[in-house]
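User: Please predict the structure of the protein below. I'd like the answer in C-alpha coordinate form so I can feed it into my own downstream comparison script.

Assistant: Understood. Taking the following sequence of 318 residues as input:
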Amino acid sequence: MQRVAQSDEEVVDKALYNFSFRYGGTSMMKLTSATVTLLIAFFTILNANSILAQVTPTPAAESTAPKSDNIVQTHIHSSVLGEDRSVIIHLPRNYSKDTAQKYPVMYVLDGTSQDSHTSDKITVLSDAGLVPAAIVVGLPNTRGNRERDQTPPFMRRDVNDERSPYGAGDRFLSFIETELVPFIDNHYRTSGYRTLSGNSRGGLFVLYSLMEKPDLFQARFCHSTPVWRFENLMVNKMSEFLLGSSGLKGFLYVSVGDKETDQMIGGFGKLVDVLKKNRKKQFKWAAYRTPYAVHQDNALISTSKGLAEWGRVLNEIK
Protein backbone atom coordinates (compact mmCIF):
# COMPACT_ATOMS: atom_id res chain seq x y z
CA MET A 1 0.00 0.00 0.00
CA GLN A 2 1.36 3.41 -0.94
CA ARG A 3 2.02 5.73 1.97
CA VAL A 4 0.74 9.28 1.45
CA ALA A 5 2.61 12.12 3.16
CA GLN A 6 0.50 14.03 5.66
CA SER A 7 0.30 17.78 5.99
CA ASP A 8 1.15 19.54 9.23
CA GLU A 9 -2.55 20.22 9.79
CA GLU A 10 -3.43 16.53 9.39
CA VAL A 11 -0.71 15.55 11.85
CA VAL A 12 -2.09 17.97 14.43
CA ASP A 13 -5.70 16.80 13.91
CA LYS A 14 -4.67 13.18 14.36
CA ALA A 15 -2.73 13.95 17.50
CA LEU A 16 -5.71 15.83 18.99
CA TYR A 17 -8.08 13.02 18.09
CA ASN A 18 -5.87 10.38 19.70
CA PHE A 19 -5.51 12.50 22.82
CA SER A 20 -9.31 12.98 23.08
CA PHE A 21 -10.13 9.33 22.41
CA ARG A 22 -7.62 8.10 24.96
CA TYR A 23 -8.97 10.22 27.78
CA GLY A 24 -12.64 9.94 26.77
CA GLY A 25 -13.30 13.62 26.58
CA THR A 26 -14.92 15.21 23.56
CA SER A 27 -14.39 18.61 25.03
CA MET A 28 -10.70 18.32 24.35
CA MET A 29 -11.45 18.64 20.67
CA LYS A 30 -12.87 22.07 21.23
CA LEU A 31 -9.59 23.96 21.21
CA THR A 32 -9.22 27.52 20.24
CA SER A 33 -7.85 28.42 16.84
CA ALA A 34 -4.88 30.06 18.57
CA THR A 35 -3.90 26.76 20.18
CA VAL A 36 -4.10 24.92 16.88
CA THR A 37 -2.00 27.57 15.20
CA LEU A 38 0.61 27.22 17.97
CA LEU A 39 0.81 23.46 17.54
CA ILE A 40 1.18 23.77 13.76
CA ALA A 41 4.07 26.18 14.24
CA PHE A 42 5.69 23.77 16.72
CA PHE A 43 5.61 20.82 14.30
CA THR A 44 6.82 23.02 11.45
CA ILE A 45 9.89 24.00 13.47
CA LEU A 46 10.59 20.37 14.35
CA ASN A 47 10.47 19.33 10.70
CA ALA A 48 12.70 22.22 9.64
CA ASN A 49 15.31 21.36 12.27
CA SER A 50 15.25 17.72 11.23
CA ILE A 51 15.86 18.60 7.59
CA LEU A 52 18.61 21.08 8.52
CA ALA A 53 20.37 18.44 10.57
CA GLN A 54 20.41 16.14 7.53
CA VAL A 55 21.77 18.62 4.99
CA THR A 56 24.22 20.60 7.13
CA PRO A 57 27.64 18.92 7.06
CA THR A 58 29.65 18.51 10.23
CA PRO A 59 32.35 21.19 10.31
CA ALA A 60 35.76 19.76 9.44
CA ALA A 61 38.24 19.69 12.27
CA GLU A 62 40.91 22.36 11.92
CA SER A 63 44.39 21.10 11.21
CA THR A 64 46.49 21.02 14.33
CA ALA A 65 49.71 19.91 12.64
CA PRO A 66 52.54 22.00 14.05
CA LYS A 67 54.61 24.15 11.72
CA SER A 68 58.17 22.92 11.22
CA ASP A 69 60.73 24.62 13.44
CA ASN A 70 63.41 23.50 10.98
CA ILE A 71 62.45 25.98 8.26
CA VAL A 72 63.48 29.60 8.76
CA GLN A 73 62.37 32.37 6.40
CA THR A 74 64.20 35.66 6.73
CA HIS A 75 65.54 38.63 4.78
CA ILE A 76 68.94 40.22 4.49
CA HIS A 77 69.79 43.55 2.92
CA SER A 78 72.33 43.39 0.12
CA SER A 79 74.51 46.43 -0.36
CA VAL A 80 75.99 44.77 -3.44
CA LEU A 81 72.61 44.38 -5.15
CA GLY A 82 70.96 47.38 -3.50
CA GLU A 83 67.89 45.42 -2.39
CA ASP A 84 66.50 43.13 0.28
CA ARG A 85 66.76 39.40 -0.45
CA SER A 86 64.59 36.63 0.93
CA VAL A 87 66.33 33.54 2.26
CA ILE A 88 64.75 30.18 3.11
CA ILE A 89 66.85 28.06 5.46
CA HIS A 90 66.10 24.35 5.87
CA LEU A 91 67.83 22.98 8.96
CA PRO A 92 68.61 19.27 9.36
CA ARG A 93 66.06 17.22 11.27
CA ASN A 94 68.27 16.84 14.36
CA TYR A 95 69.79 20.33 14.25
CA SER A 96 68.35 21.39 17.63
CA LYS A 97 69.15 18.06 19.31
CA ASP A 98 72.84 17.66 18.49
CA THR A 99 74.11 21.14 19.31
CA ALA A 100 77.76 20.28 18.72
CA GLN A 101 77.30 19.06 15.16
CA LYS A 102 78.36 21.30 12.27
CA TYR A 103 76.91 20.89 8.78
CA PRO A 104 77.78 21.49 5.14
CA VAL A 105 75.58 24.02 3.38
CA MET A 106 73.87 23.64 0.01
CA TYR A 107 72.86 26.92 -1.62
CA VAL A 108 69.98 26.36 -4.04
CA LEU A 109 68.98 28.89 -6.70
CA ASP A 110 65.31 29.45 -7.54
CA GLY A 111 64.25 29.16 -3.93
CA THR A 112 60.57 28.23 -3.37
CA SER A 113 60.68 25.89 -6.38
CA GLN A 114 63.93 23.93 -5.97
CA ASP A 115 64.98 24.13 -2.32
CA SER A 116 62.19 22.14 -0.64
CA HIS A 117 62.50 18.96 -2.70
CA THR A 118 66.29 19.19 -2.48
CA SER A 119 66.12 19.42 1.31
CA ASP A 120 63.72 16.47 1.46
CA LYS A 121 66.02 14.32 -0.67
CA ILE A 122 69.06 15.18 1.45
CA THR A 123 67.12 14.19 4.57
CA VAL A 124 66.17 10.80 3.13
CA LEU A 125 69.64 10.07 1.73
CA SER A 126 71.40 11.22 4.90
CA ASP A 127 69.15 8.99 7.00
CA ALA A 128 70.27 6.13 4.74
CA GLY A 129 73.93 7.08 5.27
CA LEU A 130 74.53 7.99 1.61
CA VAL A 131 75.18 11.72 2.05
CA PRO A 132 75.86 13.94 5.05
CA ALA A 133 73.00 15.85 6.66
CA ALA A 134 73.14 19.44 5.43
CA ILE A 135 71.70 22.91 5.81
CA VAL A 136 69.85 23.90 2.63
CA VAL A 137 69.59 27.60 1.79
CA GLY A 138 67.02 28.53 -0.83
CA LEU A 139 67.47 31.80 -2.74
CA PRO A 140 64.15 33.09 -4.13
CA ASN A 141 64.33 35.46 -7.08
CA THR A 142 63.32 39.08 -6.83
CA ARG A 143 60.59 40.14 -9.24
CA GLY A 144 61.85 40.25 -12.82
CA ASN A 145 65.51 39.81 -11.89
CA ARG A 146 66.14 36.11 -12.42
CA GLU A 147 67.72 36.76 -15.83
CA ARG A 148 69.84 39.56 -14.37
CA ASP A 149 71.21 37.51 -11.49
CA GLN A 150 71.70 34.10 -13.06
CA THR A 151 73.17 35.10 -16.42
CA PRO A 152 76.99 35.33 -16.57
CA PRO A 153 78.37 38.77 -17.46
CA PHE A 154 79.72 37.51 -20.80
CA MET A 155 76.27 36.39 -22.01
CA ARG A 156 73.25 38.43 -23.01
CA ARG A 157 70.11 37.79 -21.00
CA ASP A 158 67.87 37.07 -23.99
CA VAL A 159 69.21 34.62 -26.55
CA ASN A 160 66.74 35.93 -29.13
CA ASP A 161 67.54 39.63 -28.70
CA GLU A 162 71.02 40.77 -29.68
CA ARG A 163 70.36 44.10 -27.98
CA SER A 164 69.40 42.66 -24.61
CA PRO A 165 71.69 43.63 -21.71
CA TYR A 166 74.43 41.37 -20.46
CA GLY A 167 73.89 39.39 -17.30
CA ALA A 168 74.96 40.59 -13.86
CA GLY A 169 75.95 37.20 -12.52
CA ASP A 170 79.21 38.71 -11.27
CA ARG A 171 77.30 40.97 -8.86
CA PHE A 172 75.07 38.11 -7.74
CA LEU A 173 78.12 35.95 -7.09
CA SER A 174 79.66 38.80 -5.08
CA PHE A 175 76.47 39.04 -3.01
CA ILE A 176 76.63 35.31 -2.24
CA GLU A 177 80.33 35.37 -1.37
CA THR A 178 80.54 38.58 0.65
CA GLU A 179 77.08 38.86 2.21
CA LEU A 180 75.05 35.66 2.14
CA VAL A 181 77.73 33.11 3.06
CA PRO A 182 78.99 35.19 6.03
CA PHE A 183 75.39 35.65 7.21
CA ILE A 184 74.75 31.89 7.18
CA ASP A 185 78.12 31.10 8.79
CA ASN A 186 77.52 33.65 11.57
CA HIS A 187 74.02 32.44 12.44
CA TYR A 188 74.23 28.68 11.96
CA ARG A 189 76.61 25.83 12.75
CA THR A 190 78.34 25.38 9.41
CA SER A 191 81.35 23.18 8.68
CA GLY A 192 82.84 25.36 5.94
CA TYR A 193 81.94 22.88 3.19
CA ARG A 194 79.65 24.56 0.63
CA THR A 195 77.73 23.35 -2.41
CA LEU A 196 75.72 25.21 -5.07
CA SER A 197 72.81 23.93 -7.15
CA GLY A 198 71.09 25.55 -10.14
CA ASN A 199 68.44 24.57 -12.67
CA SER A 200 68.17 25.76 -16.28
CA ARG A 201 69.55 29.32 -16.40
CA GLY A 202 70.68 28.75 -12.83
CA GLY A 203 73.01 26.05 -14.17
CA LEU A 204 74.77 28.69 -16.25
CA PHE A 205 75.42 30.64 -13.06
CA VAL A 206 76.74 27.53 -11.32
CA LEU A 207 79.24 26.90 -14.13
CA TYR A 208 80.19 30.57 -14.12
CA SER A 209 80.89 30.35 -10.36
CA LEU A 210 83.20 27.40 -11.03
CA MET A 211 85.25 29.43 -13.48
CA GLU A 212 85.20 32.65 -11.47
CA LYS A 213 85.43 31.36 -7.87
CA PRO A 214 86.41 27.67 -8.01
CA ASP A 215 87.15 27.45 -4.28
CA LEU A 216 83.98 29.14 -3.05
CA PHE A 217 82.04 25.87 -3.37
CA GLN A 218 83.37 22.34 -3.08
CA ALA A 219 80.53 20.73 -5.02
CA ARG A 220 78.20 21.97 -7.75
CA PHE A 221 75.01 20.66 -9.38
CA CYS A 222 73.71 21.78 -12.78
CA HIS A 223 70.36 20.57 -14.10
CA SER A 224 69.08 21.18 -17.66
CA THR A 225 71.65 23.88 -18.35
CA PRO A 226 71.33 25.64 -21.75
CA VAL A 227 75.07 25.60 -22.53
CA TRP A 228 74.20 25.60 -26.26
CA ARG A 229 73.26 29.29 -26.19
CA PHE A 230 75.26 31.77 -28.26
CA GLU A 231 76.95 29.02 -30.27
CA ASN A 232 77.98 26.92 -27.27
CA LEU A 233 79.66 29.87 -25.59
CA MET A 234 79.59 28.28 -22.12
CA VAL A 235 81.05 25.04 -23.46
CA ASN A 236 83.93 26.94 -25.02
CA LYS A 237 84.50 28.95 -21.82
CA MET A 238 84.57 25.75 -19.78
CA SER A 239 87.10 24.21 -22.19
CA GLU A 240 89.42 27.20 -21.83
CA PHE A 241 89.04 27.19 -18.05
CA LEU A 242 89.77 23.48 -17.61
CA LEU A 243 92.84 23.66 -19.83
CA GLY A 244 94.39 26.20 -17.49
CA SER A 245 93.30 24.70 -14.16
CA SER A 246 95.67 21.87 -13.37
CA GLY A 247 95.08 21.96 -9.61
CA LEU A 248 91.29 22.15 -9.75
CA LYS A 249 89.47 20.37 -6.91
CA GLY A 250 85.83 19.61 -6.19
CA PHE A 251 82.81 17.85 -7.67
CA LEU A 252 80.48 18.72 -10.55
CA TYR A 253 77.23 16.99 -11.49
CA VAL A 254 75.42 17.79 -14.73
CA SER A 255 72.11 16.35 -15.91
CA VAL A 256 69.64 16.68 -18.75
CA GLY A 257 66.28 15.05 -19.42
CA ASP A 258 66.35 12.68 -22.37
CA LYS A 259 63.05 14.18 -23.54
CA GLU A 260 64.40 17.74 -23.67
CA THR A 261 65.08 19.60 -26.90
CA ASP A 262 67.81 18.60 -29.33
CA GLN A 263 69.62 21.84 -28.48
CA MET A 264 69.67 21.03 -24.77
CA ILE A 265 70.80 17.44 -25.29
CA GLY A 266 73.35 18.47 -27.91
CA GLY A 267 74.88 21.12 -25.66
CA PHE A 268 74.95 18.65 -22.79
CA GLY A 269 76.85 16.18 -24.95
CA LYS A 270 79.43 18.81 -25.94
CA LEU A 271 79.97 19.77 -22.29
CA VAL A 272 80.47 16.14 -21.33
CA ASP A 273 83.04 15.77 -24.14
CA VAL A 274 84.96 18.74 -22.74
CA LEU A 275 84.91 17.22 -19.25
CA LYS A 276 86.18 13.90 -20.61
CA LYS A 277 89.06 15.56 -22.47
CA ASN A 278 90.15 17.54 -19.42
CA ARG A 279 90.06 15.05 -16.56
CA LYS A 280 91.63 16.23 -13.32
CA LYS A 281 92.87 14.00 -10.55
CA GLN A 282 91.13 15.94 -7.75
CA PHE A 283 88.18 17.22 -9.75
CA LYS A 284 85.44 14.62 -9.97
CA TRP A 285 82.35 14.89 -12.13
CA ALA A 286 79.31 12.87 -13.13
CA ALA A 287 76.84 13.30 -16.00
CA TYR A 288 73.37 11.82 -16.26
CA ARG A 289 70.66 11.73 -18.91
CA THR A 290 67.46 11.33 -16.93
CA PRO A 291 65.11 8.79 -18.56
CA TYR A 292 61.76 10.23 -19.70
CA ALA A 293 62.46 13.61 -18.06
CA VAL A 294 61.58 16.91 -19.74
CA HIS A 295 62.92 20.36 -18.99
CA GLN A 296 60.22 21.07 -16.42
CA ASP A 297 60.87 18.03 -14.23
CA ASN A 298 64.47 16.98 -14.81
CA ALA A 299 65.81 18.76 -11.71
CA LEU A 300 63.08 17.25 -9.55
CA ILE A 301 63.90 13.75 -10.78
CA SER A 302 67.67 13.86 -11.18
CA THR A 303 68.58 15.61 -7.92
CA SER A 304 68.56 12.30 -6.03
CA LYS A 305 71.01 10.80 -8.54
CA GLY A 306 73.29 13.82 -8.24
CA LEU A 307 73.27 13.71 -4.46
CA ALA A 308 74.04 9.98 -4.48
CA GLU A 309 76.99 10.58 -6.84
CA TRP A 310 78.23 13.33 -4.55
CA GLY A 311 77.99 11.00 -1.55
CA ARG A 312 79.95 8.34 -3.43
CA VAL A 313 82.76 10.80 -4.16
CA LEU A 314 82.85 11.92 -0.52
CA ASN A 315 83.21 8.29 0.58
CA GLU A 316 86.05 7.79 -1.88
CA ILE A 317 87.89 10.77 -0.43
CA LYS A 318 87.57 9.33 3.06
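That's the full C-alpha coordinate string. The chain has nine helices and eight strands.
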